[in-house]
Structure formats: C-alpha cells, structure tokens
Amino acid sequence: MSAEFNHHISNVEDNTYGAKTIREPAQDVQIFKEADVVVVGGGPAGIAAAVASARNGVQTILLERYGHLGGLASGGLVTLIMPMSDGTNTPQIAGICQEVIDRLDAVGAALHPRMEDIGSGKAELVDYWGTYSFCVIDGKIRLSVFMEPEILKYILNDMVEEAGVKLLLHSLFVNTLVEDD
Q1: Per-residue DSSP letter, 27
Q2: What are the Cα distances from residue 131, in Å, to 36, 81, 117, 121, 124?
Q3: Can you list the alpha helix ranges (DSSP code H) found in 41-148?
Q4: Which strands form 60-63's sheet, in the order they lie side by side?
Q5: Is there a contact between 34 and 9 (Cβ–Cβ < 8 Å)?
Q6: How far apart are CA 73 and CA 149, in angstroms?
Q7: Which of 122, 174, 156 lies closest to 46 in space, CA to CA?
Q8: Residue 83, helix vs strand vs coil
C-alpha cells in the first residue's frame, strides 16, 4: 500500500449515523471552464435545458457521461417517444421535442401518425396504427414517434452545436462552486 492510501485509512472515523467517513486531504483543482449554466446529462431533458439556455444567450456547458447525446433514447435503444397527445387533435408536447421530431422527419428517421390523423378514431387508421405501441389509446390515434437512434445522436449534436453549447462528452459531475447565488 502506498503511504497516501495508508494516510486515508488512518483518517477513517464513525459519524453520528454510524457510517464510516474518510477525510480527504485538501487539494488545488484547476478550473477548466466557467459558465452561467451547467447542465449535467445529455438525455432528452438535458438537451432541451442546454439548448434553451444557450438560445437565450446564456453561456452554457453540457456534461455527458457517455460519448454521445440522447441518453436512453439513443444509447439505450428506447426508440419510442411516448404519446405526445391526449386523444384530441391537439399535440400536448411541442417545443424542442417537436423540433427534434421535425429534424428526424426531414431525414426519414422517424415513424409516426400524420398530424392530421392525431385524435382520429377512423377504423382503418386505428387498425393500421394499432400495430405500433402507444399510437392508439382508447380507440384514438395518439402522437407517438419511433426514431432511428443513431440518426438521433447526429441531430442532437447539431442542435447543441448550433445553439453554442459547450459540450463535454465522457465527463462526470463531481461538485459545483457557486458565486453570487
């Protein structure tokens, strides 16, 4: 064992809850980058937060643990965006999510009912879309989108880059330093 490791072992103490703690020695950590907003996680919610922040002129960093964006939607192969409508012909989810779908559509990487069919109960549409999970609920066509996960990665990279987000892949979050609230 190294002397440094032995030093840590000698600092093991019981805390008030009966769990053991280790006191780490102080260290100087170089600041790599500063930003007004740091988003941790490049899944769908993190992408939306980072892109919206940067589009509003805020200096934004996006940290992602893996080497791609999209979270489970891309890397986990959860390739379905669940119902985005409530059974009427009015979509309930839009904004950046709809922008992603529009970009997927533009390159033929999405499968979903046509917007004019959302909320329909027509038997031929219900029969056709009923074979796809979550496109028909309670006899009505819902907006659910199946997507190609590898194309999604490219689209999300483009959106982040276009917005001016500083993207750090293969990065983990450890701690924050906050100034002026």
Answers
A1: -
A2: 46, 16, 16, 15, 12
A3: 44-55, 95-106, 123-129
A4: 37-40, 60-63, 166-168
A5: no
A6: 7
A7: 156
A8: coil
How far, in Å, CA of 8 to CA of 4, rounded?
7
Mean pLDDT of 113-139: 93
Q: Beta strand pairing status for 20-22 and 12-14? A: antiparallel
From 49, 95, 41, select the one nearest 73 (Cα to Cα): 41
Residue 6's pLDDT band (boundaries 50, 70, 90)? very low
Count other C-beta atoms under 10 Å from residue 85's C-beta: 20
Q: How far is CA 171 from CA 42, 68, 91, 154, in A?
A: 11, 11, 35, 19
Of 74, 53, 79, give the one whose Cα is nearest residue 167.
53
Which of 42-51, 104-113, 134-143 comes out lowest in average pLDDT? 134-143
Structure tokens at 127: 């029969």
> CA quadruple 49, 54, 59, 65: dihedral positive or negative?
positive
Strand partners, 80: 146
What's the Cα-to-Cα distance from 143 to each of 93, 135, 151, rounded to whole Å? 9, 6, 20
